[in-house]
Amino acid sequence: MSARHFLSLLDFTTDELLGVIRRGIELKDLRKRGVLFEPLKSRVLGMIFEKSSTRTRVSFEAGMIQLGGQAIFLSPRDTQLGRGEPIGDSAIVLSSMLDVVMIRTHAHSTLTDFAAKSRVPVINALSDESHPCQLLADMQTFLEHRGAIEGKTVAWIGDGFNMCNSYIEAARQFGFQLRIACPEGYEPDPRFMAIGAEHVQIVRDPREAVKGAHLVTTDVWTSMGQEEETARRLAHFAPYQVTRDMLDLAAPDVLFMHCLPAHRGEEISHDLLDDPRSVAWDQAENRLHAQKALLEFLVEPAYHHA
């Protein structure tokens, strides 16, 4: 049986995604009640980081430990990964020693090349193309607070980059309408627009995007690796700051999300995370629970078939 990977939301069916999200809610409840649940005892997660991280590292490492397993942190500084060993060679060796691998990388091809040679599941923990683990947490958060997202309207405000791409995939998989407000020249890759097709539209005016929306979300204007563009981006994105006044245009029961870290005074106003409509802290915690459900889903079958 070849390993299942999670490189994009499109790697799972809608039912599988919903199953993982509902399982995340169950695992969250077990944790809140102090129930010890260790289905991944003696299993080992390898965590490959080419980019720095707070939430991704802590949520995967803590999650694996809580499930009874172990996690090994691998940075390019400490391994051959940063010294030119072919990705495929690393994948063959590492997957013979590990039960699951999580990779946070720049080029999405690093993930696909690694997965092609890996005997164990590979998880995309962020690439320049997408961030599917964040979407699991976001969808879990919406479900907890408002129920099913199918048929609802979501507004993405800001750069049409990796997080936006994952929202496009989510619009297709979960059946919501996505309005993307971005400056000219910062639209999502046409490949992703084609994936979203009838679920996605681009508007220039963020207020128009937010009008009547049930979920409003944004991300930093300068992603890791784009630092030299910061000044230019600040000028282009200034009208796209999400504020309390902008949220007032949305549905009365709107939720605001941000995958963090947030730059207050840039993509959001200084007071936005304190607004009662913001669920960014729940959303951040749900990275832990959604990813535990994902790890259980991917690693358990291997456990049973061993």
- Overall structural class, as computed from helix and strand content, comes to alpha/beta
Spatial shape: globular
Strand order of the largest sheet: 7-6-5-8-9
Round the Cα radius of gyration to an integer and report it.
19 Å
Instruction: State the fourth-level CATH superfamily of the largest domain.
Output: Aspartate/ornithine carbamoyltransferase
Unreliable stretches covering 5 or more consecutive residues: none
Total domain modules: 2
Number of helices: 11
Number of strands: 9
Second rung of CATH, namely the architecture of the largest domain: 3-Layer(aba) Sandwich
Largest sheet: 5 strands, parallel
Helix content: 40-55%
Termini distance?
A: 11 Å
**Arithmetic mean pLDDT:** 94
**Strand/helix succession:** HEHEHEHEHEHEHEHEHHEH
CATH topology (fold) name of the largest domain = Rossmann fold
CATH top level label of the largest domain: Alpha Beta
- Proportion of strand residues: 5-15%
